Amino acid sequence: MQERVLKVLEFLKVKELLQGYVSSSLGRSLVTELLPSVNFEEVVRMQEETDEAALVIRLKGNVPLGGIFDIRPHVKRASIGGMLSPQELNEVSSTIHASRMMRRFIEDLAEEEIEIPILLEFADRIIVLSDLEESIRMAIDDNGAVLDSASDSLRTLRNQLRTREARVRERLESMIRSSSAQKMLSDAIITIRNDRFVIPVKQEYRGHYGGIIHDQSSSGQTLFIEPQAIVQLNNELQGIRVKEQQEIERILIELSNTVGENRNELEVIVDVLGKLDFMFAKARFGKSMKATKPKMNQDGIIALYKARHPLIPINEVVPNDIFLGKDFSTIVITGPNTGGKTVTLKTVGLCTLMAQAGLQIPALDGSEMAVFDSVYADIGDEQSIEQSLSTFSSHMVNIVDILNKVDFRSLVLFDELGAGTDPGEGAALAISILDEVYKRGARVIATTHYPELKAYGYNREGVINASVEFDIDTLSPTYKLLIGVPGRSNAFEISKRLGLKESVIQAARSYISADTNEVESMIAALEESKKQAELELTEAHDLLKQSEKLHKDLQKQLVEYYDQKDSLLEKAKTKAAQIIEKAQHESEDVIRSLRKMKLEKDAEIKEHELIQAKKRLEEAVPKQSGKKKTSAVNKNKHVFKPGDEVKVLSFDQKGHLLEKTADKEWQVQIGILKMKVKEDDLQFIKSEKPVETKPMAIVKGRDFHVNLELDLRGERYEDALLRVEKYIDDALLAGYPRVSVIHGKGTGALRQGVQEYLRNHRSVKKIRFGDAAEGGTGVTVVEFK
Q: Would the pTM of this model clear 0.90, i.e. be above it?
């Protein structure tokens, strides 16, 4: 991408905004180096990285990215034998700690069954260097001071230092507390000069204490003298201090060598942490402007839904739908300079650059962007004083450069094409340039105020006109892009609104050709037709979404019906087997009883005993439902016909006969379901008028249908419970065996309240959290009795 294009389309300003979301210098350097990629696979990978980071931020709100430093110079110096300072070692330790926390954070996300394959790849690359981190923590405090615990030798030396210092202070305090000291000392204090303990002695008593003079006051009246009596003690202190410093250096060198030995691991940690910081910075930036992940393609297709310019405040910018590359490859935005045309150009160009740089774009979900090898832009006034070129000449220099390089993998943006010269020649030149770029196969958006180009979109295949809507009532542009409608002049309407006499306006109209007036009328009609078409399209889209959802719900219900049917049949078979087994046991008991009586009474069995045994055998026989008998009677007495209300005995459900499908077989409609049933399984109830054989009931609104799931996310607690209560009643009336309530994870208050209500509901058999495919702990599955 040309540096000039990145500047003109304000991609550099986007990078400046992105800098505000990084957490370390590592992420900041990656933002500085960020450029749009022309490799499709790389762009897709970068978009997936940003989307995954956005998912984590949406679920967790924050990421542990604090305490990260660019330790690569420290590691490199340590690897060649250099000694790191305590502060540098602290930065190494802090970065290792941050990597360990980040790895644990990612692993915890994976345990929650959140889909984060890219983050898991990064986590696998992080090598945990806990021993090195702990060694530095034990040796150096947060302020960069080497601790006594760094080594036994250092602890011993510092104990000796404290002992010697106490002895020196004790000797000096005895000197300054003497009666003569008040006269000879400027002040009764002990101080330090050149790392040696001294006392302030007046000039005239300099010889009284002997020893060494280390300093004097600015007036020269006070000398800081090390008395002869403590010179030896100070010498001993200095010797211990030298040993202490040597031990500190030994400790720092040892830690530095360990850092150097782990150079490869530390460089990987720095690389991973930098990329993670960069990923989450892109995600936070996208969240700040309500951006979404675009679907990427290599076919030059752009489909932006409610796209906004990312540098215009979200409460001020007007979102627009922009399409290019599928039905047409060139858009010509015509009309007067009333604002909005250049913003549209920059929105498309900047969104393209952002998408190819792995950034999410400020548009609705479902938007699509193409990966271009080159983006060219000729936008703004570019008069060159240095080259003595006019605005027109500067534009032409740029356009010539574009024409020399453009191909079918290019996006070209022309602002006010052909402006700055004679209108007739400028319009002709604009048409010629557009034809040339179109022949190369590039995707083009051009703005112009030349009326001659309004006809260009009608005379060229693959080219479409567009304009920015202008509100005559407010005399201001609405900034809404109208694709398919060329711009029209509003000069007469504006002049009339501002008070220009009607006679002057009519005189002006007389100078306009009839063809021009017809074109303006045609454009006005097109604008009105487009508004109506957009309104109808929106309504149709809403109806389509409702129909698709209803279709999916019905498919779910059908699957559940067959599952329930199989389950009921299995239970019926099991119950039948149990009844038969019980009957067999009972009959065997009766037979055993008869044999016993025969043996005991020598075949003298009384009549009432036989009758009682016979009754027990009859009771042991499985009883057949009376429904079958009734069915048989009805079957023999009634001739079924379409429209009859019947009862399907095997399902114990009422329905209506639709048509006879075979001998002794009918198609029956039970609710929204249709099935084929044998006449033996039907019980006649009453005759009615034949029902219309429509495939499905017409759904007139959402209230006529009960969904299989209730989404409560974003609801207030009290409103949510009211919705749950009504929904459970509706689901029970619909005869659903189970439903799902989506309450999200959040703080858990809504989930707890919903589950408490469900547990206490008389018709709820049991509740459980959804599995991973159903939404996990953000969903409660309810089974009814």
A: no
